[in-house]
Design a protein that fits this description.
The chain is built from 5 helices and 5 strands; from the N terminus they run βαβαβαβαβα. The protein is an alpha/beta fold. It is globular, with a radius of gyration of 13 Å. The two termini are 21 Å apart.
Length: 130
Amino acid sequence: MANEPKSVLLVEDEAGLRELYEEALREDGWLVFAVGNGEEGLALAQNRAPSVAILDVMLPGMSGLDMLAAMRQNPKLAQTPVVVLSALEDIDDRARGLALGAKKYFGKNEASPKMIIEALNELTGISEKS
């Protein structure tokens, strides 16, 4: 399956932000699976096994950190690189996200779509530019 496109699960409840990231990711050649809550995100992750995931912390229902914990319990998803996004600069959330195995943790106010894409390419070993 070497020809499989690079895929990303994007779980973000703010529709405008989700669309902004989704568009930038698609322009960079990513196959994007985008949803607005943790339950849908977890189900999609289990069905699609994306190359990488971007999780918002504050989501309706299951939080991004709870979703990350559930992913780590699933052998199929345990090694999936995860980038966490948060509107809050909560040191406890950051520590918990990193302790759960998030590879990167960005405050939404500090992360541009370009920064996120660079992080995803780094995490997946993809460095070619389209």
